Description:
Shape: globular
Number of helices: 12
Structural class: alpha+beta
Amino acid sequence: MRAELAAxxxxxxxxxxxHATAIPRLTLARxxxxxxxxxxxxxxxxxxxxxxxxxxxxLSDEVYVYDSSQYLVVAQNLPVSSQVVDASPxxxxxxxxxxxxxxxxxxxxxxxxxxxxLPKRASQRGIFTGExxxxxxxxxxxxxxxxxxxxxxxxxxxxxxxxxxxxxxRSPDGWRLAQMAVVDSHSQRIxxxxxxxxxxxxEPLRVEELADEVHMSVSxxxxxxxxxxxxxxxxxxxxxxxxxxxxxxxxxxxDAATAGHRVGYESQSQFNREYSRFFGLPPARDVxxxxxxxxxxxxx
Length: 300
């Protein structure tokens, strides 16, 4: 089944990069070279599977490596860096990502009555890996085959996606995925806090106000936020700011001073210092390198 999935993705993704498909929330990826530098992004909740190759994902200081024998689930919007570590023109990295709809997860978790056991569990990381078993590969194959029969997508894709979610929720770590959608669970409140920070990351962070908004004490917010995201709310906000500043400089061609100010930094020296620490280079040099990569002219 893995070989068939790899062959299908290989056939569909002729060009390099990430490809949207006729199935909502399903994307395919192809990379023919190992990535020398990590890609930083806020990863939306998703189920990620590799048919070929391997990938390393970093959340704060934690490393998650997976290949064609495992899957990766991201259950919250998390700022991560990722890097393809096994790929070549002869054996390219081939993967798929199925983004989650929280409403679908909540409805299915309710049907399975998972909310009755979740309050007894402590908050856990919003990212985890698991064994890619045949019970998950089978619906994944059927979903991917629908790309050759687009007329069947509207009727059949939602049913197969529901089956995939069911299999994930029934897996040993499936309760981690359910936590984000069950009302009044700690992880669901942390999901709300992440949403607030994502919308207002440019504003000064007042942890007391954030805790009030998600109906948690300050100490409880810190405890569960770090359990889910591996970082504090302040560290989370900092990563959002730095990633957005990088996007602004590249896409809008503005300088570092303008980008830093737009994402909420009052001190230019602090912005340069934190940017260099996070991305490994000062803003101007980092953006120059990324533009050269986009143009296929990587500097030595």
